[in-house]
Write a sequence for this structure.
């Protein structure tokens, strides 16, 4: 039996302390139609890869839901988050990120996880 890969969200590689705008487009798995996130809330969180079972994330931020043009009009299927210099300037190494989505009824969906590789910032005072 093959073990499924839970790290299916995009891989990101950047220097800690840089401003990073991350965007994720959501589609239904089977028919690839845009998944409408209107009326949902979402959160982006990061934990250290070496401490996968952490109960408190190192970074936790609300995400913005944006519309994307579709052949039927606009669909709110884009989630974005901006990581500011203060969020990552003291981080370096391999991290896991997770997106959590709550719909209007309170149900939670977590679409797998992704990997961040954050390179050590050698000029941290510049990011203050």
């Amino acid at each position: 039996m093959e073990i499924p890969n839970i790290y299916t969200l995009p891989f990101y590689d950047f220097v800690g302390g840089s401003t990073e705008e991350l965007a994720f487009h959501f589609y239904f798995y089977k028919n690839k139609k845009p998944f409408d996130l209107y009326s949902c809330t979402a959160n982006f969180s990061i934990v250290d890869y070496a401490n996968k079972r952490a109960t408190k994330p190192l970074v936790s931020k609300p995400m913005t839901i944006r519309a994307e043009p579709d052949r039927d009009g606009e669909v709110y299927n884009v989630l974005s988050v901006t990581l500011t210099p203060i969020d990552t300037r003291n981080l370096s190494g391999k991290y896991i990120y997770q997106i959590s989505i709550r719909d209007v009824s309170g149900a939670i969906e977590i679409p797998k996880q992704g990997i961040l590789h954050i390179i050590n910032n050698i000029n941290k005072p510049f990011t203050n």
